[in-house]
Automatic annotation (TrEMBL):
Gene3D superfamilies, sorted: 2.60.200.40, Probable inorganic polyphosphate/atp-NAD kinase, domain 1
Pfam families (UniProt xref): DAGK_cat, YegS_C
Domain DAGKc span(s) in chain numbering: 1-131
GO molecular function: ATP binding; ATP-dependent diacylglycerol kinase activity; metal ion binding
Cofactor: Mg(2+)
Family (UniProt): Belongs to the diacylglycerol/lipid kinase family.
GO terms (BP aspect): phospholipid biosynthetic process
Protein name as catalogued: Diacylglycerol kinase
ATP-binding among keywords: yes
Native source species: Planococcus lenghuensis
Key words, A-Z: ATP-binding, Kinase, Lipid biosynthesis, Lipid metabolism, Magnesium, Metal-binding, Nucleotide-binding, Phospholipid biosynthesis, Phospholipid metabolism, Transferase
A GO CC term assigned to this protein in UniProt: plasma membrane
SUPFAM superfamilies: NAD kinase/diacylglycerol kinase-like
Length: 298
């Protein structure tokens, strides 16, 4: 019988995970899997569990939880000699990876879709010893996300991050960046640098409308001027998927990017605290196989 490891964060999604646990186990059973349940209790558990599934050559890793749990699970699979098939039920605030892959944000719908899912190879990115699936941010917005409270996330969801970002972008100073990439070099002052892997960033699905989960590219957005009038204009363009056409935004599409700043600057990796500059980001193309709804598969 095929073996599945089911990684669950019992406290995620307003503690809804236990409600859906049995539904997932039943679906996996119908798919022919014998399921081993692993519940996370602390940071890093999901990464350790997923790495253990690789070592013991499980056939499938299923994760259920918030953005952090999904990110940790992918990190446990990354660069392993053997990687099981992966999928997940999103119970987070933003759920960008699920949005990009067409996985329903309704847990029951996402569980039901498992049995008709198809395999898609997707990109992830590596920076230092960390991995991400959606976004690395530098500058005002990156630091602003640390000020979002759990209460704001519960009430406002993705808009909580946007509101904090608005405050920061209209007050912070610009930073001098040197960016080396496989298409050339960019240098200058900017308020914000975003390196996106998917079209969905912060819950907004039109930041990088041309980004595909398997195109092998980072989509770099450099915001050079974010005074209030410019930001209002850019916010409108973001909503209709035309941010890259704004005169205050430079866009670079590259397989790898090295970033330097005059002073060390913190980055944010998929919503979590990351490294200080300098560092290099590298795309690992079509690195993991994910079970997704049929409409998103090749």
């Amino acid at each position: 019988m095929k073996r599945a490891m089911f990684i669950i964060n019992p406290s995620s999604g307003k503690e809804e995970a236990p409600v859906y646990k049995e539904l997932v186990i039943e679906a996996l059973s119908r798919m022919g899997f014998e399921t081993e349940l692993r519940e996370t209790a602390k940071e890093g558990d999901a990464t350790r569990f997923a790495a253990d599934a690789c070592k013991n050559e499980f056939d499938f890793v299923m994760a259920m939880g918030g953005d952090g749990t999904i990110n940790e699970s992918v990190a446990g699979l990354a660069e392993q000699p053997y990687k099981p098939l992966f999928s997940f039920i999103p119970l987070g605030t933003v759920n960008d990876f699920a949005r990009a892959l067409g996985i329903s944000l309704d847990p029951e719908e996402a569980i039901a879709a498992l049995e008709t899912g198809v395999v898609k190879k997707v990109d992830i990115a590596k920076v230092g010893d960390r991995y991400f699936m959606n976004i690395l941010a530098l500058g005002a917005l990156a630091e602003a996300t640390y000020h979002v409270t759990p209460e704001q996330k519960t009430k406002l969801g993705a808009f909580a991050y946007l509101l904090e970002g608005l405050k920061a972008l209209t007050h912070d100073e610009e930073t001098y960046f040197e960016i080396e990439h496989d298409q050339g070099r960019w240098e200058g002052e900017a308020k914000l640098v975003l390196a996106a892997l998917t079209n969905s960033v912060g819950g907004f699905e039109k930041l990088a409308p041309d980004a595909q989960t398997d195109d092998g590219l980072l989509h770099l957005y450099i915001v050079k001027n974010a005074a209030l009038p410019a930001f209002v204009r850019m916010a409108g363009e973001l909503m209709i998927g035309r941010l890259e056409h704004d005169p205050a935004v430079d866009v670079i599409h590259a397989k790898s990017v090295s970033v330097k700043t005059k002073e060390p600057l913190d980055c944010n990796i998929d919503g979590e605290a990351g490294f200080k500059t300098p560092f290099t980001i590298e795309v690992l193309p079509k690195h993991i196989e994910v079970l997704v709804p049929p409409q998103d598969a090749d």
